[in-house]
Design brief:
The chain has 414 residues and is an alpha+beta fold. Helices cover 34% and strands 22% of the residues. The strands form 3 sheets. The chain has a 6-stranded mixed β-sheet, sandwiched between helices. Strand 3, helix 3 and strand 4 form a beta-alpha-beta unit.
Length: 414
């Protein structure tokens, strides 16, 4: 599955023009993947500013500049197509002898790096060095006194001063929401990954539900989910790794993994898969044996409110209207005490599955074609169990497409 750069430069220019920015500097690992299509390398795993930078000028005609660790540079260039790459040393030592004529190994290694060029490597990377390289690159690109945004929502407090110290004449501002707005609209390639992740998770969830028995545990069911998800992804032609994530809750405790299953227990299966960094998110509810009247009443009304809210999940509708509609539907059924902050969220490339925008009471953002949204109605009732219904939807020009076909009715397992 080839990865193409999702960043829409024309849209990025329009958003930067609205914010009065001359460019943005991406620093969050997930945003680097989004902006370039390339992995930023293990140095980004520390989640500290300075491990990688990508300079995105507002003018869509201007090329990107990337500052990455030397060990990752060749692969980064090949995948991203970025020609302007600046490197810095990371802890991994790499010597290239591929073009040195055959001879004694020590001679070839010494020819590749003479003793006078040997210098200590950092324990991971040197932020002073990487920020100095950022300042040099901005100067070379004519942006040393520009109005630039970066991702303050990711920026660790410990690294915040580095931007002003290294680039004192740059007028820095927070571009976190701008980057989120860019990532909100998915390309066809991103949607392909999210659909595949959802299809794999659907098969895994169905398999887990089929294996619900007395004395089964959340770990037992998750293991079944993981195996079946990977098998389904392989059947769909995907040869890469599939990471299973999510949570299963068993019993009346409503939180955590719960106990080993007993008859009458509600089982929440809130599960997803990660494909090339893109995370799906859907959920179903099952019960071991016939549900009690109270369990059935809660789930039926959650299901009803879900379907009522889904009617408003359409292009052009503000997300807050979906939230209000679903909430009102629950209250109309007599559950005035029901109160939840959001009924879903965006999906994409993220360590944390819940991306902005949220289907929340105060979210005025309108639904647009190209969004991928997880829409959910959960309720955690200690004494009865954790109830949840969630589907992943791809927003088209006039309608939405559900990624799962698995029944939304409560699954009754004998």
């Amino acid at each position: 599955m080839a990865f193409l750069r999702p960043l829409n430069r024309q849209r990025a220019q329009g958003l930067m023009d609205q914010e009065g920015l001359d460019g943005i500097v991406l620093i969050q690992p997930e945003s680097i993947v989004y902006g370039t299509g390339a992995r930023p390398g293990s140095a980004a795993g520390w989640r500290r500013a300075g491990a990688v930078f990508v300079i995105v000028p507002a003018d869509e005609r201007e090329p990107l500049t990337a500052i990455v660790g030397d060990f990752y540079a060749e692969e980064f260039r090949a995948v991203s197509g970025i020609d302007d790459i600046v490197t810095f040393p990371v802890w991994v030592d790499l010597i290239d002898i591929s073009k040195i004529p055959y001879g004694r190994l020590t001679e070839r290694l010494s020819a590749a790096r003479p003793p006078e060029q040997v210098c200590p490597r950092p324990a991971n990377f040197d932020r002073r060095q990487t920020f100095a390289l950022l300042a040099e690159a901005l100067g070379r690109r004519g942006l040393s006194t520009a109005r630039l945004g970066t991702e303050h929502a990711f920026l660790p407090v410990a690294d915040q001063a580095c931007f002003t110290e290294a680039c004192p004449d740059v007028r820095w501002s927070d571009a976190s929401r701008l980057v989120s707005r860019l990532r909100m609209i998915k390309t066809a390639e991103e949607i392909e990954r999210l659909k595949l992740a959802a299809q794999a998770a659907e098969a895994g969830t169905a398999a887990a539900i089929d294996h619900i028995r007395p004395d089964c545990t959340a770990d037992d069911l998750f293991a079944i989910f993981r195996t079946a998800s990977q098998q389904r992804a392989a059947e769909l032609g995907y040869k890469g790794a599939v990471l299973a994530n999510g949570a299963i809750t068993i019993g009346p405790g409503a939180t955590g993994k719960g106990r080993a299953a007993e008859r009458g227990d509600i089982i929440r299966l809130d599960l997803g898969c990660v494909v090339e960094g893109y995370t799906s998110d859907c959920a179903r509810t099952a019960v071991l044996g016939p549900p009690s009247p109270d369990q059935q009443a809660i789930y039926d009304d959650l299901h009803h409110a879900f379907e009522i809210g889904l009617e408003r999940l359409r292009p052009g509708v503000p997300l807050r209207e979906v939230h209000a509609t679903a909430m009102e539907a629950m209250h109309a059924r007599g559950f005035d005490m029901y109160c939840r902050g959001h009924f879903g969220h965006g999906l994409g490339a993220s360590v944390f599955v819940e991306e902005w925008p949220f289907i929340a009471a105060d979210e005025a953002t309108e639904i647009e074609a190209g969004m991928v949204l997880a829409y959910e109605l959960p309720w955690y009732v200690r004494g009865l169990g954790a109830f949840m219904l969630e589907d992943q939807f791809i927003v088209g020009a006039q309608s939405v497409e559900a990624c799962w076909r698995l029944s939304r009715k409560i699954a009754i397992c004998d």
